[in-house]
Amino acid sequence: MDLLGIILWPLKWAVELLLVAFHWLFSNMGLGYNDGITWVLSIVGLVIVVRAALIPIFVRQIKSQRKMLEVAPQLKKIQDKYKGKKDQFSRESMSRETMELYKRTGTNPLSSCLPLLLQMPIFFALFSVLNDAQHLKAGVGPLDVDRAQSFGNASLFGQAPLSESFASQWTLMMAGNPYSVAVMVIAAVMVVLMTASQFITQLQIVSKNMSPETKASPMFKQQRIMLYLLPLVFAFSGVAFPLGVMFYWLTSNIWTMVQQFIVIRNMPTPGSEAAKAREERLARKGKLVAKDGDIIIVEEPKKPAQRQQPVGKNRSKKQPGPKK
Known about the structure:
The longest helix is centred in the middle third of the chain and has 29 residues, at 180-208. The protein contains twelve helices and four strands; from the N terminus they run ααααααββααααααββ. By secondary structure, the protein is mainly alpha-helical.
């Protein structure tokens, strides 16, 4: 066993335990032992538990990223100050001023990446377990050969095996296999949903959770690139993912999208549109506290009452004159 395998072994064991536990739960609730929907719900339950356990790490990552966004304008000033200067003295001065900025503001460029690095082994373990099970391979723990074969042979609607992908079925469809169409249709819908959820998640950050100073910095350009790059990565790589793995990615993306929405709504970046919207909500409720301790209350302007037209008396109808 290599070093990566040794690191992932306890994580894979825990992942298999959760997957098997959810499969046992749904099977005893009346769902078929070998049905695709049973394993899909087990994957969804597995992702929810893992992502819920990672919430503290996610919050720490958000706080670290916010600090980096806050110091981005000051960092840009330092970079502009030494722009075009390539001598040794200028490089040392820029590095020294940058480190002083990080020390003064209590930020660290690596701190925002550390939580993400801690999550990577868990995601590798999730992917490895699902991928091995779809190839009928027993796991390192509770996922024995019988359950692995059940997972690998499970299918949705009796026609779309969870172990198959869009790419694997393309060749079969060209050869005239009618059952390949079901897998390709489901896989195509999954790819669209994965791409859309990833795009919405990035769009929330770029459009609502960045201050005007940050939008003028090089970091904003990088975020704009990621806004369109990551969905494209999902779109092109998704055609090669088996359906079981795609359900894992889609559930994880939806969790991230909802989690990001809650964080931006309640913990927005200072100066961003989301922060202004939050201040307005708190002010309307009388919960916004100013820096001097006073409570700020914003009263919504009352709509002017519509003036009621006076009701006149019915005029008597004119009597018709005598006919000539």
